[in-house]
């Protein structure tokens, strides 16, 4: 199997679609930027370079290690970059804590960073044998092993199907339930091997590990990824300043659908203009350099200078 994400770049993660993000957000000196997924600080660094001097970058991440890394990388701007270990679903509370009433720029680069995939602590990858955890936020209490141990067979199958369109969802769920009756499934290797036993390999040139979708669905369930994105999308129009811009990078069709629908709804309410008729995708050069980015989809919107919607 090809495990391209095992090649960890220098900073642990290569910022995806960086030029497109800068083109669409069009950051200017003095602006306030909210990076909802600061990660290893790649996008945040570029935003800081563009809004300083006089600007402010608020960096949010649920993963304290990534946030600490971003802080080191952006250290030169001192108090003009601020850091919040928080879920972006609580972006409104972060802004309140920061004493900021509105932001000019919002970026959410969803999913996980390359270094998180390879770290044992997260147990996210079938290529690294580790405890089956998958929590990006260490304060969460339910791990992937807990879901595998406790969910009824039908709920397991539904989770695999709805979150990852796993066509073998029922088979996998049945096998999980059989195995867990005698042996606790507590490591990434155990789960991956169990899935590989029941899922036939996909034919084709790019061989994808049969466990890929199971791992994706579990990670999304453990971290409530679609729910958190939905909550963030509800909040953005409340805190983005008139004329502000927002960009979202998704790696999953369900996420991209949520972003697309939210933007169309904002546009229908005359709150914004969608800047990306179609999602922007990485070109071949970027995919060659960073194969993990191949499923990235960027959508961006510019908020109206005046919405015509009276404030609530
Ligand atoms: C793809 S990485 C971002 C990489 C970053 N743009 C960079 O250039 O390094 C996604 C990051 O979002 C964080 N994350 C995922 N879900 C989150 C959430 N609901 N709230 C805050 N951070 C989240 C992950 O911990 C990870 O660090």
> What structural class results from the helix and strand content?
alpha/beta
Tell me roughly what share of residues is in helical segments.
40-55%
Report the uncertain regions. 1-5
Going by CATH, the homologous superfamily of the largest domain would be: Vaccinia Virus protein VP39
CATH architecture of the largest domain: 3-Layer(aba) Sandwich
Distance between the ends: 54 Å
* Helix and strand sequence: HEHEHEHEHHHHHHHEHEHE
Q: Describe the global form.
A: globular
Backbone CA Rg: 20 Å
Q: Count the helices. How many? A: 13
Bound molecules: S-adenosylmethionine
> What assembly state would you assign to the polypeptide chains in this entry?
single chain
Approximate strand percentage: 5-15%
Provide mean pLDDT, rounded: 93
Strand line-up across the major sheet? 3-2-1-4-5-7-6
Give the biggest sheet.
Answer: 7 strands, mixed
CATH fold group of the largest domain? Rossmann fold
Total number of β-strand segments?
7
CATH class of the largest domain, named Alpha Beta
Number of domains: 2
Can you give keywords for this protein?
2 domains; disordered N terminus; single chain; 312 residues; DNA polymerase, domain 1; seven-stranded mixed β-sheet; binds S-adenosylmethionine; alpha/beta; Rossmann fold
Characterization of the model:
By secondary structure, this protein is α/β, with parallel strands linked by helices. The protein folds into 2 domains: about 5-115 and about 225-305, 3-Layer(aba) Sandwich (Rossmann fold), CATH 3.40.50; about 140-220, Putative methyltransferase TM0872, insert domain (DNA polymerase, domain 1). About 40% of the residues lie in helices and about 15% in strands. It is built from 13 helices and 7 strands. It has helices at about 20-25, 40-50, 65-75, 90-100, 115-120, 145-150, 155-165, 170-180, 190-200, 210-220, 225-240, 255-270, 285-290, and strands spanning about 30-35, 55-60, 80-85, 105-110, 240-250, 270-275, 295-305. It has a 7-stranded mixed sheet with strand order 3-2-1-4-5-7-6, sandwiched between helices. β2 (about 55-60), α3 and β3 form a beta-alpha-beta unit. α7 crosses α10 (about 210-220) and α8 (about 170-180) packs across α9 (about 190-200). The longest helix is centred in the last third of the chain and has 16 residues, at about 255-270. The protein is globular. The termini are far apart. The relative contact order is 0.14. Residues about 1-5 have low confidence and may be disordered. It binds S-adenosylmethionine.
């Amino acid at each position: 199997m090809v495990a391209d994400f095992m090649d960890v770049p220098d900073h642990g993660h290569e910022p995806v679609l960086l030029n497109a993000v800068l083109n669409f957000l069009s950051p200017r000196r003095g602006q306030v930027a909210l990076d909802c997924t600061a990660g290893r600080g790649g996008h945040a660094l570029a935003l800081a370079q563009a809004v300083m001097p006089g600007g402010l970058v608020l960096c949010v991440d649920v993963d304290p290690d990534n946030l600490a890394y971003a802080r080191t990388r952006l250290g030169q701007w001192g108090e003009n970059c601020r850091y919040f270990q928080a879920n972006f679903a609580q972006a409104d509370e972060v802004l309140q804590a920061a004493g900021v009433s509105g932001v000019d720029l919002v970026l959410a680069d969803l999913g996980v960073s390359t270094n998180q995939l390879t770290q044992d602590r997260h147990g996210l990858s079938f290529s690294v044998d580790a405890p089956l955890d998958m929590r990006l936020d260490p304060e969460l209490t339910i791990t992937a092993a807990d879901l595998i141990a406790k969910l009824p067979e039908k709920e397991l199958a539904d989770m695999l199907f709805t979150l990852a369109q796993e066509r073998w969802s029922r088979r996998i769920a049945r096998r999980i339930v059989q195995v867990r009756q005698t042996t606790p499934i507590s490591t990434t290797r155990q789960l991956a091997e169990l899935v590989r036993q029941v899922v036939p390999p996909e034919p084709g040139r790019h061989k994808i590990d049969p466990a890929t979708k199971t791992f994706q669905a579990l990670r999304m369930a453990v971290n409530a990824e679609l729910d958190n994105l939905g909550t963030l999308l509800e909040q953005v129009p409340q805190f983005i300043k008139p004329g502000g811009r927002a960009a979202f990078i998704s790696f999953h069709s369900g996420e991209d659908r949520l972003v697309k629908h939210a933007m169309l709804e904002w546009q229908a309410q005359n709150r914004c203009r969608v800047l990306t008729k179609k999602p922007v995708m990485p070109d071949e050069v970027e995919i060659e350099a960073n194969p993990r980015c191949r499923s990235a989809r960027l959508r961006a919107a510019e908020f109206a200078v005046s919405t015509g919607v009276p404030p609530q």
